[in-house]
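sry for the spam today, last one i promise. C-alpha cells for design, 405 residues
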C-alpha cells in the first residue's frame, strides 16, 4: 500500500503526521509512506529533517524537492502511482497536484474547497463543527468521517517520553514557539519575563521548552540579539554544559534550562506560558493550565492565513497596511487559542495587545498563585478533548479501507 501525504508546518508534521504514521505502520509495517513537505509561510524549514528522524523508513521530500515533483521531475524513491493521497496541511492545491500526477483516492483532513468537492472521496473531520464546515464547502455528507483531533494522540505520545533534567517540577515552563518571528522576538521577551520572575521568586523553577524544529544556532542568535526593540527585551547567552543547555545572563549569574521534550516537561510543571497554536491544544489534552499571549508589539512581522500575510512586502505602504490588518484581525476574535474557541469560554488565560515582559510577569504569577483557577483549568482542559483520543487509529483504519477500495 502506497500513500502520499502533504504537510507543512511543525504542528502538522509533529502533531498530525507523527501519530497517523505510527498508526499506519502498526497496521502494515510494509506500508509505503511518501511525505511531501510543501512550501508554506508557517513552516520552519526543518520539518523534513524531523520526519526523517522519526520515520527513517518513510520517503520524505523537502519543499524544494516537492516543487520539482510538482513540476513533473523525477527524484529518487518517487513512485509511479499511489493508492491514496491525503491532505494533512499546506495549501490543498498541493495535494490535488500530487493526486493528478500519481492517481489514487483523494482524502483530506479538516479542510476542503468547493472546487474539489467531487474529487475528494474521504474528508476526515475533527468534530461536528468541522463536519458542518465541510458540508458548507460542498463535501457530500456520505464522504465525511469524523475521527477527532490528531494532535491529541500526538501530545499523549510525546508526553510519554521521560522528562529531561531541568524539567520545572511544580514550576513554570515557557514554550516560545517555532516560527521565525517567534524565535527571534519571543525567546528574548520570555527570557526577560523569566528574569523578572526569578528576582521576585528565587526558588520558583523555570525552564524553556524549545521546539525540535528550532536549530540551536537560531536560539543563540535570538537570545544574543535581544529581539525587536518594541518587545522591550534584554540580551542573554546560550551556554552548553555537556549534554545540557541553558539561557543565561551575560555574566551567567542567572540561568534557565533549555529543554527539547517540552510536553513531557509540561506534565511536571504547574503551568505553561506560551503562544496560540497547536501547542495549546496539545497542552489542553494533557490537562496543563496555561497562559497564552498574543503580543501585537510588531504586528507587521506576524504570519497569518491568507494573502494579507504578504502585505509588508509592498514598498512604502506595506508595513502600515499589514499592521492595520493584523490589529483588526486580533480584535475581531475574543479568543485566540483553539481550546478557548472550542469551549467558547476562557478555560485558559489569554493576554492580547501590546505587551511588556513586566505585564506578562504579573499575569503569570497571578495565575501561578491561584490554586482555584489552576484546578478548574486543569479539570476543564482535561475533559475538553478526551473524546478525541484514538483519532490516529480511526483515521488509519478508514484511510487503509479507502486506499484498498
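last one done:
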Amino acid at each position: 500500500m502506497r500513500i502520499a501525504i502533504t504537510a507543512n508546518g511543525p504542528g502538522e508534521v509533529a502533531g498530525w503526521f507523527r501519530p497517523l504514521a505510527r498508526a499506519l505502520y502498526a497496521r502494515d509495517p510494509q506500508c509505503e509512506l511518501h511525505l511531501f513537505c510543501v512550501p508554506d509561510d508557517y513552516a520552519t524549514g526543518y520539518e523534513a529533517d524531523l520526519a526523517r528522524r522519526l520515520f527513517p523508513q518513510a520517503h520524505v521530500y523537502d519543499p524544494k524537492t516537492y516543487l520539482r515533483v510538482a513540476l513533473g521531475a523525477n527524484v529518487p524513491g518517487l513512485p509511479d502511482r499511489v493508492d491514496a493521497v491525503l491532505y494533512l496541511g499546506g495549501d490543498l492545491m498541493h495535494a490535488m497536484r500530487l493526486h493528478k500526477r500519481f492517481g489514487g483516492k483523494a482524502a483530506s483532513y479538516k479542510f476542503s474547497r468547493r472546487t474539489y468537492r467531487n474529487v475528494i472521496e474521504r474528508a476526515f473531520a475533527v468534530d461536528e463543527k468541522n463536519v458542518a464546515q465541510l458540508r458548507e464547502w460542498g463535501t457530500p455528507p456520505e464522504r465525511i468521517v469524523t475521527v477527532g483531533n490528531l494532535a491529541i494522540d500526538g501530545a499523549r505520545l510525546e508526553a510519554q517520553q521521560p522528562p529531561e533534567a531541568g524539567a520545572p517540577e511544580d514550576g513554570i515552563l515557557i514554550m516560545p514557539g517555532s516560527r521565525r518571528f517567534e524565535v527571534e522576538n519571543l525567546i528574548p521577551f520570555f527570557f526577560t519575563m523569566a528574569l523578572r520572575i526569578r528576582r521576585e521568586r528565587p526558588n520558583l523553577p523555570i525552564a524553556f521548552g524549545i521546539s525540535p524544529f528550532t536549530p540551536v544556532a537560531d536560539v543563540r542568535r535570538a537570545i544574543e540579539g535581544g529581539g525587536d526593540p518594541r518587545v522591550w527585551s534584554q540580551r542573554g547567552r546560550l551556554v552548553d554544559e555537556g549534554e545540557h543547555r541553558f539561557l543565561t545572563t551575560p555574566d551567567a549569574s542567572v540561568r534557565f534550562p533549555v529543554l527539547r521534550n517540552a510536553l513531557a516537561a509540561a506534565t511536571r510543571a504547574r503551568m505553561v506560558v506560551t503562544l496560540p497554536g497547536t501547542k495549546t491544544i496539545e497542552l489542553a489534552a494533557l490537562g496543563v493550565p496555561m497562559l497564552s499571549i498574543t503580543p501585537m508589539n510588531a504586528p507587521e512581522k506576524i504570519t497569518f492565513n491568507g494573502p494579507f500575510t504578504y502585505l509588508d512586502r509592498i514598498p512604502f505602504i506595506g508595513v502600515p497596511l499589514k499592521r492595520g490588518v493584523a490589529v483588526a484581525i486580533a480584535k475581531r476574535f475574543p479568543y485566540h487559542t483553539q481550546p478557548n474557541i472550542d469551549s467558547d469560554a476562557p478555560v485558559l488565560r489569554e493576554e492580547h495587545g501590546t505587551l511588556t515582559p513586566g505585564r506578562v510577569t504579573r499575569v503569570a504569577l497571578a495565575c501561578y498563585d491561584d490554586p482555584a483557577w489552576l484546578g478548574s483549568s486543569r479539570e476543564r482542559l482535561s475533559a475538553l478533548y478526551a473524546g478525541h483520543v484514538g483519532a490516529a487509529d480511526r483515521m488509519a483504519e478508514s484511510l487503509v479501507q479507502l486506499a484498498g477500495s
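The chain has 15 helices and 15 strands. ok im logging off now
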